[in-house]
Design goal:
Layout (H helix, E strand, L loop, with lengths): L2 H18 L5 H19 L3 H5 L7 H8 L2 H12 L3 H10 L5 H17 L1 H9 L5 H9 L9 H16 L7 H22 L1
């Protein structure tokens, strides 16, 4: 567990303690409870409807429940990796609030989401849900399980490249070109390291 994860758990525990002992108003406790219930519902069944329960006025408070424990964030990332649109959207909207290993894991998950929905990942960058840098990082980062297997990395990146190359939406031409250049550069780096 990283220091950031421990810190977040301590902050979450402190907030929970304050809520429990009445350190905040009842309506704040109700909002926090509703947020936690909304997150649990969303993670058990990601959908447009369950995401909308988190999108009420300010979902950054609800995001705190997701990022407060590695188990909860990992559950979200599993949905993202498997191509779940709503989970990926929720993660992308809060990506800038992550750092360290949690950010890396989230970028890897978004890259895997892009393997299912390349057009949507490029659209996140076009619509500034994520930055161009975050899009590129998501596309060139691979799961740690592949770190010592250059052949598997090349296969994965070539497959990813063909998925991105198959995006023909003219509105995404700039993002597509940036993505392909970045993937090609990363493929060259892997090929050089393999020699």
């Amino acid at each position: 567990m990283t220091k950031v994860s421990r810190f977040r758990q301590l902050v979450f525990a402190l907030i929970t303690t304050l809520l429990t002992v009445g350190g905040v108003r009842a309506d704040d406790r109700t909002a926090a409870s509703a947020c936690q219930e909304g997150v649990e519902l969303f993670l058990s069944n990601p959908s447009k409807q369950t995401l909308s329960t988190l999108d009420g006025g300010d979902d950054s408070g609800c995001w705190a429940f997701v990022s407060s424990t590695s188990e909860t964030l990992d559950q979200l990332l599993l949905h993202v990796e498997s191509g779940d649109f709503w989970s990926a959207r929720f993660l992308a909207e809060h990506l800038s609030q992550l750092d360290g290993g949690e950010l890396e894991d989230s970028l890897v998950a978004l890259g895997q989401f892009g393997d299912h929905h390349a057009t949507e990942l490029l659209r996140y960058a076009k619509n500034r849900v994520i930055s161009d840098r975050q899009m590129v990082d998501a596309l060139v980062m691979l799961p740690l399980s592949l770190s010592d297997d250059f052949d598997a990395q090349l296969r994965w990146m070539r497959n990813r490249r063909s998925r991105v190359a198959s995006v023909y939406d003219n509105d995404l031409a700039i993002e597509r070109a940036l993505a392909l250049r970045s993937i090609d550069s990363h493929i060259s780096e892997i090929e050089a390291a393999r020699r």
